[in-house]
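Q: How would the structure tokens look for this protein?
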Amino acid sequence: METAAITYTISTAIVVLFQACLAIGLPWGAASMGGKYPGKYPPKMRVTAVLNIFVLSFLAIIVFVKAGIMLAQFLSFSTYAIWFVVFFGLVSVVLNTITKSKIERIWIPVALTQFVCSLMVAIN
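A: Here is the predicted structure in token form.
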């Protein structure tokens, strides 16, 4: 379970770094949000990228807690919250698979890794 949690977190860190790049203005918008914002994100979307960083980080913490790696006092919360993480991962796989943006499909392996690892942690 620990390996799955660490793998989930590494995958999530990749997405967090990508979101940080979008937030600071790198022109990678075509690989996100269905390619709706090619080039640099507009200011409101940069704020969204920062919010995504916080959400993704919180999901990784839930996975770590459920795997027994940290914050044991929140284990009962993580037992339920992990299923949100699993659902989030499933939605991410679906959205990255059906996107019209061909470049955004590069995220399918990352999303699939997150989904599988969170499911492994959830059922153990």
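The chain is about 70% helix and 0% strand.

Residues 9 and 60 are 6 Å apart (CA to CA).

Upvote if useful.
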